[in-house]
Amino acid sequence: MLSKQMLYNLENSSAIRQMFIEGQELAARVGAENVYDFSLGNPAAPVPEAFTQALLDIIQTEDSLTLHGYMNNAGYPEVRQAVADSLNRRFGLSLGMENIIMTNGAAGAINIVFKAILDVEDDVVVFRPYFGEYRSYVSNWHGRCVEVDPLLPSFQPDLEDFERKIDERTKAVILNNPVNPTGVVYSAETLESIARILERKQAEYRHEIYLLVDEPYRELAYDGVDVPYVTKFYGNTFVIYSFSKTLSVPGERIGYVVVPPAMADWENMANAVTVANRVCGFINAPSLLQKAVARCLDEKCDIGFYDRNRRLLYDALTGMGFQCVRPEGAFYLFVRSPEENEKQFVARAKKHNLILVSGSTFSMPGYVRLAYCVKTDMIQRSLPAFEDLAREYNLIP
Amino acid sequence: MLSKQMLYNLENSSAIRQMFIEGQELAARVGAENVYDFSLGNPAAPVPEAFTQALLDIIQTEDSLTLHGYMNNAGYPEVRQAVADSLNRRFGLSLGMENIIMTNGAAGAINIVFKAILDVEDDVVVFRPYFGEYRSYVSNWHGRCVEVDPLLPSFQPDLEDFERKIDERTKAVILNNPVNPTGVVYSAETLESIARILERKQAEYRHEIYLLVDEPYRELAYDGVDVPYVTKFYGNTFVIYSFSKTLSVPGERIGYVVVPPAMADWENMANAVTVANRVCGFINAPSLLQKAVARCLDEKCDIGFYDRNRRLLYDALTGMGFQCVRPEGAFYLFVRSPEENEKQFVARAKKHNLILVSGSTFSMPGYVRLAYCVKTDMIQRSLPAFEDLAREYNLIP
């Protein structure tokens, strides 16, 4: 007696979680220390001490009834102001508190934005490969995903294909920067090109096309690469942010959405997104967590930790003959499968106790994703297993 | 460029919040101490000290990466087990941790259950008067609300009308116990009758009809009245619970849903609700809050505080000639408007600085709701204003 939508969701239920469960079953059989689980994007860099101190200080000093009570569905005014101030300072923007809506992480934010803008059978354009849950978020509101191909081997978006895929049913475009699962960072040039195409298409079809920029990995960028702030290029942009990766707190569900002043009729849209936050059942972002992140807007977990893992794993795997785009952000490697059907490659890797995720999950068969947000020690111990695997495929030069 | 659904939500946007805002505007004009705001169901009894201590202890003793990290989308196993144990102990049930899914409050729980079971144009039966947000939760998943009339003046459900309103399109029934906005508590006899009717209708239409019992006010019951646990009467029951009122923590968004072993195919349903928790964007209930409530399952705010307010306001208003069902639970009075159009009564009350909410919000025109989860002192100071109002309507005996 499940709904048709739910049956669809169950059929397409997260292959990532499935691999994580298989990894745990394997660990129970052969010992956790002998399983090399690269399946889940669960942060491994320690939580900044400032976050813990902020929680303790807030709980000890603030009135508990106010601290844990209802506030405006968009969040505490002083929290929204602090977020706006921080963004203005860092990116030269002119946001007010009214432009910030605190949300239950990025997943909550994307859902309430889609709720506010998507009609049944509206199209949402996505760039392959992409986080598979976007499909669920779009289907919740009866929209349809339209996929744009990447350029290979760079995994930058194919902008000609992008332009072809937009038509009068296109209500929104969603992109992730830095990208899960490739680790690619879209440059200012790429984002400006996307903006120009969207401006042209808006004029052609005479309605807004909204861009959602999903930035949970914004702070996880390496080699000094720039992650541009997209509202500068395109007014009808929602910026989606989560503190999950920056502060290593994904279980706490805290993030925000920016509805910039450059968006058409932004006050109405900010109000709609706020009401969507309520009617979708979020009501508001968790109150204590709002206050805690407001005190940690300049804090980050140890990004160097992920950077060291990135170099170690990328250098080792490419040295063994595996092919992989060099990631500049996030904490994933997207490796080309040495055989066409990457699911067989995933199965063979598992025989070496290596838990990888099939690229089909990200609408990109022929590849696998490795999450390197793991203990460095596990990566080091896993390398002989990767070597054995490379030898099986005759990759080692 | 808002979606049609969103325009519907905005048009029907919470009149309760609207009155709260009007009350704040009035307070800015005439002084907060001169406004008697009975609009919002925001708890006023102090947060139990044990909750604050639980938060501090957890933050100071648990590993921060685990504490704030991802867990199973249904919640931490030990938290789910603690909730199951507590319910088993208190209500003589036989729940396991697999029957408990931790959620973002009751609003989140209702949405993920509807997501799991509602197809487009499925009917959901509701009992007038009811919390108006149910309409939004049903419309999120393109279901339709079918309203059952109450018996007057008791505000118990009209069971004959209930039976008439169920047909083959009925997928679910939702009830609130104790009831917002009337404070009525449904007795075991009433609930058993509802269960018998549903059993008969399930057999007649040969499909499951799910009962959602929304119990955020379960602990707020007075005069020793019993709030029966409905899974005992009807297997296909989802019990929805929130800690918002029990612990005075509505901003924290923490609750759970029970998928009982008596439900048809309950394992599949529990899995579906868990996946719905993820794909709707909640992912999981906030992690720190899960751990905190697990340590406070026997804690309550000072229920006596609400009871004293109840007696004070009920006795005073009925003494002035206002008509009102005597509430046995929650923290609301549902007062009959002395003129047919209760919106005019609300407007006239506002001239006396009394902020009430129109019964139309609850699909029950001709009545107004007063939330007495306020400082007792405010109730006392408001009584002369109510007296003036009663005199205007020639109510005072």
Q: Could you tell me the number of beta strands of chain A? A: 12
Structural class of chain A: alpha/beta
The CATH H-level homologous superfamily of the largest domain in chain A: Type I PLP-dependent aspartate aminotransferase-like (Major domain)
Mean pLDDT of chain A: 96
Principal-axis shape of chain A equals globular
The most extensive contact between chains is:
A-B, 81 and 82 residues
Query: What is the level 1 CATH name of the largest domain in chain A?
Result: Alpha Beta
The CATH architecture of the largest domain in chain A is 3-Layer(aba) Sandwich
Number of domains of chain A: 2
User: Termini distance of chain A?
Assistant: 55 Å
* Major β-sheet strand ordering of chain A: 2-8-7-6-5-3-4
Low-pLDDT regions of chain A: none
Describe the protein's topology.
Two copies of one chain form a homodimer.
Chain A: H1 4-11, H2 15-30, E1 36-37, H3 49-61, H4 64-67, H5 77-91, E2 100-103, H6 105-117, E3 123-127, H7 133-140, E4 144-148, H8 159-165, E5 170-176, H9 188-205, E6 210-214, E7 237-242, E8 255-258, H10 266-279, H11 287-294, H12 303-319, E9 332-336, H13 342-351, E10 354-355, E11 357-358, E12 367-371, H14 376-392
Parallel strand pairs in A: 1-10, 3-4, 3-5, 5-6, 6-7
Antiparallel strand pairs in A: 2-8, 7-8, 9-12, 11-12
Helix pairs in contact in A: 3-11, 5-11, 6-10, 12-14
